[in-house]
Specification:
Oligomer: heterodimer
Largest sheet of chain B: none
Structural class of chain A: mainly alpha
Radius of gyration of chain A: 20 Å
Number of strands of chain B: 0
Shape of chain B: elongated
Number of strands of chain A: 3
Helix content of chain B: over 70%
Strand order of the largest sheet of chain A: 1-3-2
Strand content of chain B: under 5%
Distance between the termini of chain B: 62 Å
Structural class of chain B: mainly alpha
Number of helices of chain A: 6
Largest sheet of chain A: 3 strands, antiparallel
């Protein structure tokens, strides 16, 4: 399993972001920073990334904090807005949604970036990523109520994919 | 239960109501939408603003009663990691089984 990808699997701390998240996650679960928990957090941060390195390939460095914060704000705002749009659609007795398939061509190449892009699309109400097609380099999205699939795809690319490309390079 | 400042009390109640409203709308969506792919949209709505409102209320309540609560941020993170994966797998299975879809079937060659 790890033979071909040995470089990442043999180094300690090859996935700094994952290590930091694991340590922070452990301390948040325990709600304490006493010595025992700090040691446990450090052990988890060192051992788990090394154990799963064969499955997740090479790590990445968070290279742009500014775009990451901006993207977080955009996504939170869009979640609120589209929640309201979809709620109106559900509660209106007369309107029937016009669902459509929206193919979203991908420009971003980093696998983590593609996964994050697809997750963001699913978490904003009204759109669900159904197929991530690596051969065609596109994500097939099901939109709940969409009259113009091309415009919807352009919108998603501009709002989420462009900042993701800055973050993952 | 500790006495709270009425403003904070009201804000916590408001956040709980907002969360409950969007959870209810998610459930109504399940009833109202006509095909599998449309129904797939209901849980993404319930798990964002619905759960988000309840979590914000919980954080605010804990903070106001003097306990710093950050569990809630972890819950948000776990939802964000797991919900899209399960939705994606459900959608793939549904496409494979060619379930009826009002949007038709995506053209693939």
């Amino acid at each position: 399993m790890s033979d071909q990808r040995a470089p990442a699997a043999r180094r300690w701390l090859a996935h700094p972001v994952m290590s930091a998240l694991l340590a922070a996650g452990w301390l948040m679960l325990q709600q304490s920073v006493d010595a025992g928990n700090l040691i446990a957090a450090a052990l988890l941060a060192l051992v788990i990334p090394r154990m799963v390195a064969g499955f997740i390939g090479d790590g990445f460095r968070l290279r742009a904090a500014g775009p990451a914060l901006r993207l977080t704000a955009i996504v939170l705002w869009d979640i609120v807005q589209s929640n309201i749009t979809v709620a109106k659609l559900v509660l209106s007795p007369t309107r029937t949604p016009q669902p459509a398939w929206v193919p979203v061509p991908l420009d971003i190449t980093h696998p983590n970036g593609i996964a994050l892009f697809a997750s963001i699309i699913t978490m904003t109400p009204g759109t669900v990523s159904c197929v991530i097609d690596e051969a065609r380099r596109e994500i097939l999205v099901h939109a709940l109520d969409c009259s113009d699939p091309e415009a919807a795809a352009r919108d998603m690319k501009a709002r989420y994919e462009a900042p993701l490309r800055e973050i993952f390079g | 239960m500790t006495e709270l400042n009425p403003w904070i009390d009201g804000l916590v109640a408001l956040l709980l109501l907002i969360g409950a409203f969007f959870l209810l709308v998610g459930a109504l969506g399940m009833l109202r939408f006509r095909d599998f792919f449309q129904r797939l949209h209901a849980p993404t709505k319930a798990s964002t603003l619905g759960v988000g409102g309840v979590l914000l209320a919980s954080m605010l309540y804990s903070a106001a009663t003097g306990r710093l609560a950050i569990h809630e941020l972890l819950i948000t993170l776990f939802i964000f990691i797991t919900a899209p994966v399960s939705a994606n797998l459900l959608a793939k299975a549904a496409l494979h089984l060619k379930l009826p879809s009002k949007a038709g079937h995506p053209k693939r060659d």
